Amino acid sequence: MNPDQIETAFQRLREREPEPTTELTYKTPFELLIAVILSAQATDVSVNQATEKLYPIANTPQAIIDLGVNDLKSYIKSIGLFNTKAENIIKTCRMLMDLHNGQVPERRESLEALPGVGRKTANVILNTAFGHSTIAVDTHIFRVSNRTGIAPGKNVIEVEKRLVDRVPRKYQRRAHHWLILLGRYTCIARNPKCEQCLISDICPSAFQLKAVSTTKSRNPKTAKKRSGSRLKSASNSNQRGQSGPTKKNTAKR
């Protein structure tokens, strides 16, 4: 995308969702920090389900330290990698108490020094909890940035730098949320919903996907193959229907 198209894309995203935010449930920077740590390779829904039970019991660094690693695991065991995450959370809470008076620091270096916190998590905290114009790049944003041409790059660092360079300053505060929502619900990994996308008319990948779809639909060989597959499927279905009851129907219950 060229600069004018990028401006148009974010203008449309802002018009649809003026104040986007994270789908993680939290009330304080510390609750957000723990939720983001838990969200690695997990869905926001599963994290919210776990923290909904955890936070009424322990939602401060000292409270989680007092809870202990084993009891903490019992609250987050439904989340992937919960053993490692529990260990990191306990260590993070101790560092917050020892080095930051129990508060979540507002400096990148201090955040990234915490166990279980990398650049992406630090960017989320700086942006969502403290209002910095940082852009965290996850798998959704990496895909959207490359597919749309907004900020193509070979790795997350490269994509992040190009987003910072190419996204107009007035949109950077919310850019992370707009792009993650676009990637999560519309520009999905398989079969992207280009027909529902606000920026499909300026997205180069949308043109390519449409061209591929049109070519397939017009290709006689493809149509013949699909027709043959349907006939074969129908024939197999008829043969199964004539062969008597299946094992599932005759099995003892």
Supply database-style keywords.
Endonuclease III, domain 1; 2 domains; 14 helices; disordered C terminus
Q: How would you describe the overall organization of this protein?
A:
The longest helix is centred in the last third of the chain and has 23 residues, at 220-242. The N and C termini lie far apart (60 Å). The chain is elongated. The chain folds into 2 domains: 1-193, Orthogonal Bundle (Endonuclease III, domain 1); 203-240. The chain is built from 14 helices and no strands. The protein has helices at 3-16, 29-38, 44-54, 61-67, 69-76, 82-100, 108-112, 119-129, 139-148, 156-166, 169-185, 204-218, 220-242, 247-250. Residues 222-253 have low confidence and may be disordered. Helix 9 (139-148) crosses helix 11 (169-185). It is mainly α and 253 residues long.
In CATH terms, what is the fold-level topology of the largest domain?
Endonuclease III, domain 1
- What's the β-strand tally? 0
The level 1 CATH classification of the largest domain is: Mainly Alpha
* Strand residue content: under 5%
Q: SSE order in H/E notation?
A: HHHHHHHHHHHHHH
Task: Give the gist of this structure.
With 253 residues, the protein is an all-alpha fold. It has helices spanning 3-16, 29-38, 44-54, 61-67, 69-76, 82-100, 108-112, 119-129, 139-148, 156-166, 169-185, 204-218, 220-242, 247-250.
